[in-house]
Write a structure and sequence with these properties.
The chain is of the alpha/beta class.
């Protein structure tokens, strides 16, 4: 079977191998277990792979390079308009040669792919919508257009659309899905995490405004002022780093907030295992892997109530749903820090929930999608 993947995720090529963001590659490597060939249509450059990049493991990967596109300015929209014929031709050619079409959405390439797939109604297809499927969420027009096309069963046929969360009123082709990071064998007994010396919080994600790392720092600062011995470790890079460094310096938080930058999976896993809480006060999410991964290792999650997060946290029974109101959130977190019995209950409940979503279960679901 020949699998086609259309994605906006940037790639780099080195020594004939294609690299990209490791969590994406890990998932595609699972899809690759059930197909003979993979064709990828995506942007690609000759930059060096980073610490958080991995290569495809499949022995037969064909790459069709397309320009990286965005719709953020009048000039960029004009450039995309000029390139549309080339883009549609390359996508259509790849779809015609594929046995199964897989779209990665949302994103500009996902939007183009969702339009072109309309003329291939008999081809088996899947679309992974990694963003927030909530119909009431405020999103860019391109995201809303993709969601409309994908859920329109007249235009989009023979496709299963994989989304995070259960949304009443969804069309018949919408399938609630999940993702996984760890194998069942890694579900070892939780080691005790004594909070006697310092309570450790961890943030994992890009340092961008959408992920809201500044709020994580401000919440920790409030806890410090309440007399708690706490530390926040941030793993990730992004344009907000300089602002965060300035805030840390200006507020004398060097001893309690540490920026570690991008680190590999093993390093981050060790950090989860040595942390009490995982925090992600982001404005928008799909399935926040940082939260699910932290929960797997017994971290109590603190996260905003977006997308499927309320379900993940069982509406506050497995963690704290942040309101992004600093005073209100600090009161709830402070109360939890004082209640060691409740912490242990939430910690165990969080781990039990996350450990139900193993790589083995994920592999089985992928196989059912691609080889029904």
């Amino acid at each position: 079977m020949k699998l086609l993947i259309i994605t906006q995720v940037p790639h780099v090529v080195k020594n004939g191998r294609y690299y990209s963001y490791a969590p994406y590659i890990d998932e595609i490597n699972i899809w690759g277990q059930f197909v003979s060939r993979i064709t990828v249509v995506a942007p690609c450059s000759k930059a060096e792979p980073t610490t958080i990049d991995k290569a495809y493991e499949h022995p037969h990967v064909k790459f069709t390079v397309v320009p990286a596109i965005n719709l953020l300015s009048v000039l960029s929209v004009f450039k995309v308009w000029v390139m549309l014929t080339l883009l549609f031709w390359r996508i259509a050619t790849a779809m015609r040669q594929a046995d199964h079409i897989h779209l990665r959405c949302p994103g500009n390439m996902g939007l183009l792919g969702s339009i072109v797939q309309i003329v291939f109604p008999s081809k088996p297809k899947t679309a992974k919508y990694a963003g927030n499927w909530d119909p009431d969420a405020k999103q860019p027009w391109s995201y809303r257009l993709q969601k409309w096309i994908l859920s329109n069963t007249f235009l989009t046929r023979n496709m299963q659309v994989l989304v995070y969360g259960d949304w009443p009123g969804s069309s018949a082709n919408i399938k609630s899905f999940f993702t996984a990071s760890y194998a069942a064998a890694q579900s070892v007994s939780l080691e005790p995490k004594s909070p006697k010396e310092c309570i450790s919080f961890i943030f994992v994600g890009a340092l961008v405004k959408g992920k809201n790392p500044m709020y994580a720092i401000q919440l920790l600062q409030t806890l410090t002022r309440q007399g708690f011995a706490v530390q926040l470790k941030l793993y990730g890079e992004g344009p907000e780093r300089s602002n965060l460094e300035h805030y840390i310096e200006q507020n004398d938080l060097q001893g309690s907030v540490v920026l570690y930058g991008n680190q590999n999976k093993t390093t981050v896993q060790d950090a989860y295992q040595n942390s009490h809480f995982v925090i992600l006060p982001s404005y928008s999410e799909g399935w926040p892997k940082a939260i699910a991964e932290g929960m797997f290792w017994g971290c109590i999650p603190l996260a905003t109530a977006v997308s499927c997060v309320p379900t993940m946290l069982d509406y506050g029974k497995r963690g704290v749903l942040l309101t992004l109101q600093l005073e209100q959130d600090s009161i709830e977190v402070c109360a939890l820090l004082k209640d060691l019995a409740k912490q242990e209950i939430q910690r165990k409940a969080a781990a039990d929930w996350s450990r139900a979503y193993t790589i083995e279960r994920f592999e089985n679901e992928i196989q059912l999608l691609i080889q029904p």
